[in-house]
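Researcher: Good morning. I'm working through a list of sequences from a screen, and I'd like to move beyond sequence-only analysis. For each chain I'm collecting a predicted structure so we can compare shapes side by side. This is the next one on the list. No need for commentary yet; just the structure.
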Amino acid sequence: MAREALVANEAGVSYFRLRPGERSPFVHRHERAEEIYIVLRGTGRMKLDDELREVSVLDAIRVDATVARAFEAGPEGLDFIAVGAHHPGDGEGVDDPWAA
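Model: Good morning. Structure tokens for this chain:
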């Protein structure tokens, strides 16, 4: 999260790029921090717990803290940003075979 570079105490933003057909390297969730994801380029799918949702350019998806999430890029790849609150130690990987 680009928190320190922005001199932000409680918020962060991250940029992600997935190559065509690539999936997120991990599935994760939080205890307290909700996140908002905004698709900048491409299409793909987002895994939200057991649901798969199609995503495309300018989609903004709010994800509750406890929902496990990950992405899969479509044929042209997928670029997106994540924006959320920073709570130290708040985040855990989820054992899910859907991740890359």
